[in-house]
Amino acid sequence: MVQELESSALEILRGLDRSDGSALAKLAEVEDWRRIAATELERRATAFIQSLDEATVRAIAEGKIDLARLCRTVREEASPRTSRPSSFTR
Questions:
Q1: What angle, 0 to 180 degrees and rounded to 10, lies between the N-to-C axes of helices 2-19 and 21-29?
Q2: In which element (H, E) is residue 24 found?
Q3: Residues near 56 by Cβ (< 8 Å), separated by ≥ 6?
Q4: What is the spatial distance between Cα 12 and Cα 15, in angstroms, rounded to a whole number?
Q5: Is 59 exposed, middle or buried (0-12, 13-18, 19+ CB in 10 A)?
Q6: pLDDT tens digits, the chain, 90 residues: what are they?
Q7: What does DSSP assign to residue 63?
């Protein structure tokens, strides 16, 4: 799984190198990719929350709805069909 993800990232980086090598050089200087990736995961989760209606968001904020549990439920329902990687996984 990790090898497939690395291959995908490499292809994107190679494309960037072909189109703008100086941008790739700047990315190579970035040291805190883990923090940046964690911030991006939070941004994506926030984007998902924004798609919910206000009553649902309030229920999540008040602890009445456990969204992580609901996510696990859906993944368990889907697991016999397929296991899909997500942009929201941590």
A1: 130
A2: helix 21-29
A3: 65
A4: 5
A5: middle
A6: 999 999 999 999 999 999 999 999 999 999 999 999 999 999 999 999 999 999 999 999 999 999 999 999 999 998 876 555 666 655
A7: T
